Amino acid sequence: MNAIATPQAPPQPPSHEPSYLAVENTVRSWLLTTDHKRIGILYMISITLFFLVGGAAATLMRLNLLTPQGALVTSTTYNKLFTIHGVIMVWFFLIPSVPTVIGNFVLPMMLGARDVAFPRLNLASWYLFIGGGAFALWAIIAGGVDTGWTFYTPYSSTYANGHVIAMATGIFIAGFGSIATGLNFIVTVHKMRAPGLTWHRLPLFVWSMYSTSVILVLATPVLAITLVLMALERAFGIGIFDPAIGGDPLLFQHLFWFYSHPAVYIMILPGMGVVSEIIACFSRKAVFGYYFVAYSSVAIAVLGFVVWGHHMFVSSQSIYAGMVFSILSFLVSIPSAIKVFNWTATLYRGSIWFQTPFLYVLGFIGLFTIGGLTGLFLAALAVDVHLTDTYFVIAHFHYIMVGGMVMAYLGGLHYWWPKISGRMYPELLAKLSALFIFAGFNLTFFPQFILGYLGMPRRYHAYAPEFQVLNVLSTAGASILAIGYFLPLAYFLWSLRYGKVAGPNPWQATGLEWTTESPPPEHNFTVVPIVTEPPYAYDPVAAEEALAAKREQREPAYVR
Amino acid sequence: MTALLAVWFLPERASDIAREVDALFYGLLVLCGIIAIGVCAAVIVFCLRYRQGSNATRQAEQKTIPLEITWSAIPLVIFIALFIWAGAVYFHMSKPPDNATEIHVVGKQWMWKIQHPTGRREINEIHLLINQPVKLLMTSQDVIHDVFVPAFRTKQDVLPGRYTIEWFTPIKTGDYHLFCAEYCGDGHSRMGGWVHVMAPDAYAKWLADTSTTESVVAAGARLFQARGCAGCHGPNATVHAPPLNGIFGHPVALSTGKTVIADEQYIHDSILQPKKDIVAGYPDNLMPTYQGQLGEEEVMELIGYIKALGSTSGGVP
């Protein structure tokens, strides 16, 4: 019988060492750990808490929008809610999600390394993240901020009440955590690869994390500078953005989107990496067009820096600038399209195993495709004029960030959960919750495309009565989505104690992370793996033969 | 149900540009629909056909290059075509025709202040004559706002310290939503009202039913005298200040050696921030600033007057 998959290196000999979870279990040992896996867990716990905060804000917003008058909260509160939701979800959940949790946990293992290049810097990143998060939470508790996550000037710098500077400080500090993580990953990929692990033998998740890290390092400083300038104008009245004191309000938008558009790719590229890993494993086939998928990540990272002006088609920037940004925005969608086509082609002639991670990937492909295609509407200048700043935009980026990134994050968590915890999650319940999330998500956000086309502006506490039906549908969808999100939280915790023991490689996957024990020992590998294979040496034919042989064993031929 | 679908997919289309935008929108919808359905159909068919244990043929290795080239090149061609189409409509949207009626719009937290050429003022409402192109000259007194009329499919940010322009030709009578589409603080969702597109007789009646007697140009002329502009810029002035007759829309040589066109923005800035651009041959401390003394609406009236000076080349009335 052939092997279903050839791992990149032979399985590790037993380590006889306690796993990373069992090494020492004091609070101190966790808070001072430099183990990339434990830091990944610290991030997982922290971003889950932030997700609950951001989700609570979204829940209140959706409830408020059940009636056109916005009867639940006042407009002031509503404005603070969408600011909390945006700030927390973007900077304290989405940007760290896949990179700091899954990236921290599996990236060094995929490289055959014992840790990241700078383990203490890695821990420092988490403390910066927590420090920034503390500022943001303090700003919320102390009375909130109502600028929106975009902090547009001169509203934020001159007119807004509330703790704008505290909130900006939180993002500023957390940003340094991002920069350090990005730097750490770049150096780790360059310097810590196992013998034989050439660049073109890297799993595609590594390529996407590498591209993401480059964006983190290059773009985040621009955000830091922009927030400092905004705070200087607000605190000391130095005229930078407010025309009343000699500034230029558009300058802020240019600087902000110069960071925030690449940041959109920080919020999707890692998810694309996760999808490539999972789709290969569960279709038992190498990812179609490895080079194209790998280099399209790099292309996205590069092109992502030159499309920021498509957020500003109606801002009064020059119409010629608008044209340049429009064509570049169309071009940046090509590498994304290439990825979708390659994933689809990967399924062709594979041997598809419907496990929960794969269901999330199917969800990702469908929702990301819709999110990406609706991006074309927004790149098309004249259509963007009508759609920008409406619910169409809200729906579009939620399809990318929630439909794409959160689906990928959850898919990745399910895929690597056996490695992280050593236990299996309950499969049936997990499939059910994936279904809830997919259905709830579509019911929440699809009506918002129509709302946007009909002209409902975003950030509205109250709205015209004709928009009510679609808003009620959206709120109904959000409640299904909420159930879908709570289920994994519950069964992941349950599985820690009661889940079936997973073993080193429950999916029979090829990556180096699967050659070691689950959960892995503190230093991941007992012997340094020597890589002799490209990634994804899966064999769908052998997989089918193995399956048939197994069936044969269970039920003799004459029964059939 | 069909009525609901009509409302959802065929919203009011009340400007000439709305047709062009909708054509593009539906073009994109069909194209993207085909791509999305194609991808989803392929995924579903592959998932069913190649599910574990099915009788399909499996294969580990495949040729990739011809497919990669195909599915990179075809979108590229389509995207360039879409860009050109959308760019052409956008260009049309950005260039108001010469015969457009100019209406002044000042946004402030949280209301829209409108002034028609006749001098008539409105708040949160704009009455328009059907089939007459309209150009909104807009600015903000505080933060960034945005004039959005979904039925016209147009939208334009309204910035402090800067003039922006939005134009359209209403083609259907009725009342349409006016929204603020750029978040501007507490009352953002209340900052809106209605655009009323009226047939000629109804519009004439609306125009007649007014107590306003002073047109924008007349109001500007009054301000020009009352605020002391005429003392230096008038025909009999003793102070040596740049003459303003015929200046609008024409190049002005600056002391820096640059030349600018005297547009609305230039005159606005010359009144409020006179030190910004000094006309060649004049001292830089001659003109006092009117920052804080003139509101944005008054500045717009003055500009209206200076424009009229340009077109009639007459003196101060």
From TrEMBL, chain A:
The chain crosses the membrane at residues 41-61, 81-106, 126-145, 165-187, 207-232, 256-275, 287-307, 319-338, 358-383, 395-416, 428-450, 470-494. Residues 24-532 form the Cytochrome oxidase subunit I profile domain. Keywords: Cell membrane, Copper, Electron transport, Heme, Iron, Membrane, Metal-binding, Oxidoreductase, Respiratory chain, Translocase, Transmembrane, Transmembrane helix, Transport. It is found in: Cell membrane; Membrane. Pathway: Energy metabolism; oxidative phosphorylation. The keyword 4Fe-4S does not apply. It catalyses: 4 Fe(II)-[cytochrome c] + O2 + 8 H(+)(in) = 4 Fe(III)-[cytochrome c] + 2 H2O + 4 H(+)(out). Its EC number is 7.1.1.9. It is a multi-pass membrane protein. One of its GO terms (molecular function) is cytochrome-c oxidase activity. One of its GO terms (biological process) is oxidative phosphorylation. One of its GO terms (cellular component) is plasma membrane. Pfam families: COX1 (PF00115). It is an enzyme of class 7 (translocase). The keyword Secreted does not apply. Cytochrome c oxidase is the component of the respiratory chain that catalyzes the reduction of oxygen to water. Subunits 1-3 form the functional core of the enzyme complex. CO I is the catalytic subunit of the enzyme. Electrons originating in cytochrome c are transferred via the copper A center of subunit 2 and heme A of subunit 1 to the bimetallic center formed by heme A3 and copper B. Belongs to the heme-copper respiratory oxidase family. This is Cytochrome c oxidase subunit 1. It comes from Chthoniobacter flavus Ellin428.
Automatic annotation (TrEMBL), chain B:
Its cofactor is Cu cation. Residues 98-209 form the Cytochrome oxidase subunit II copper A binding domain. It is a multi-pass membrane protein. Residues 215-310 form the Cytochrome c domain. It catalyses: 4 Fe(II)-[cytochrome c] + O2 + 8 H(+)(in) = 4 Fe(III)-[cytochrome c] + 2 H2O + 4 H(+)(out). One of its GO terms (biological process) is ATP synthesis coupled electron transport. Residues 1-97 form the Cytochrome oxidase subunit II transmembrane region profile domain. Binds a copper A center. The chain crosses the membrane at residues 24-48, 69-91. InterPro entries: CcO_II, CcO_II-like_C, Copper_CuA, Cupredoxin, Cyt_c-like_dom, Cyt_c-like_dom_sf, Cyt_c_oxidase_su2, Cyt_c_oxidase_su2_TM_dom. Pfam families: COX2, COX2_TM, Cytochrom_C. Keywords: Copper, Electron transport, Heme, Iron, Membrane, Metal-binding, Respiratory chain, Translocase, Transmembrane, Transmembrane helix, Transport. Its EC number is 7.1.1.9. It comes from the Bacteria. One of its GO terms (cellular component) is plasma membrane. It is found in: Cell membrane; Membrane. It is an enzyme of class 7 (translocase). The keyword Secreted does not apply. One of its GO terms (molecular function) is oxidoreductase activity. Subunits I and II form the functional core of the enzyme complex. Electrons originating in cytochrome c are transferred via heme a and Cu(A) to the binuclear center formed by heme a3 and Cu(B). Belongs to the cytochrome c oxidase subunit 2 family. PANTHER family: CYTOCHROME C OXIDASE SUBUNIT 2, CYTOCHROME C OXIDASE, SUBUNIT II. This is Cytochrome c oxidase subunit 2. It comes from Chthoniobacter flavus Ellin428. The lineage of its organism: Bacteria, Pseudomonadati, Verrucomicrobiota, Spartobacteria, Chthoniobacterales.
